[in-house]
Amino acid sequence: MELEHLLQNNRRWAAGMRERDPDFFLRLSQQQSPEYLWIGCSDSRVPANEIVDLPPGELFVHRNVANVVVHSDLNCLSVMQYAVDVLKVKHIIVTGHYGCGGVRAALLGMRLGLIDNWLRHVQDVFQKHQAEVMALESESERVNRLCELNVIEQVVNVCHTTVIQEAWARGQGVAVHGWIYGLEDGHAHSLHLGVSGIEELEPKYHEALAGLITLPNS
């Protein structure tokens, strides 16, 4: 049977979960109450739950190529709105990763097809910070710096959505964070950008940009 090995993997996984916690799936089927929304890249090497070692039900997840947040993307906005208004998550974590293929394609102006339109948003980030990125010596350093800058700009975009603006206006406690993940060592790093209210955004944005020079390039 086609894909039978994946179904077998699923059965082994489910059996292992029941062995460790007989009531796990019963509890999971009745409700979800995650405290975190993860907005990350679609890259298969960046599995959200595993990176932060959280079980199913603890992390609400949206992923797209290059972890971009666009105000016209109703998919992403709907996930955010449900997470904030219904699930009442306390934290939104925008997570990029070093060596991102989408970011690299945007930096180098590669032509890949339909996705070029989506990566135009990352190219906008590059153009905004072009002098800083191009001052780095190697292509890998430039890609990794743009990965970091892209996360920072997407955090700003999240903070400017009506979903977050309205949550903050009604006094709801939700913070937006920027992280970067290293494929080579499996470590996630904070980009020192955590915003809990609109008045914090501009100063923390500039602090995060200034702090990039101290961060590792994996």
Please outline what is shown here:
With 218 residues, the protein is of the alpha/beta class. It has helices at residues 4-20, 24-30, 48-51, 74-86, 101-108, 115-128, 130-134, 139-160, 162-169, 198-211, and strands at 36-41, 59-64, 91-97, 175-181, 188-195. Helix content is 51%, strand content 16%.
Description:
It contains ten helices and five strands; from the N terminus they run ααβαβαβαααααββα. It has helices at residues 4-20, 24-30, 48-51, 74-86, 101-108, 115-128, 130-134, 139-160, 162-169, 198-211; strands spanning 36-41, 59-64, 91-97, 175-181, 188-195. 51% of the residues lie in helices and 16% in strands. It has a five-stranded mixed β-sheet. It has 218 residues and is an alpha/beta fold.
List the helices and strands and how they pair.
Layout: H1 4-20, H2 24-30, E1 36-41, H3 48-51, E2 59-64, H4 74-86, E3 91-97, H5 101-108, H6 115-128, H7 130-134, H8 139-160, H9 162-169, E4 175-181, E5 188-195, H10 198-211
Parallel strand pairs: 1-2, 1-3, 3-4
Antiparallel strand pairs: 4-5
Helix pairs in contact: 5-6, 8-10
Question: Assembly type of the shown chains?
Answer: single chain
Number of strands: 5
What is the residue-averaged pLDDT? 95
Structural class: alpha/beta
Q: What is the radius of gyration computed over CA atoms, rounded to a whole number of angstroms?
A: 19 Å
Query: Which percent range describes the beta-strand content?
Result: 15-25%
* End-to-end CA span: 41 Å
**Element pattern in H and E:** HHEHEHEHHHHHEEH
Largest sheet: 5 strands, mixed
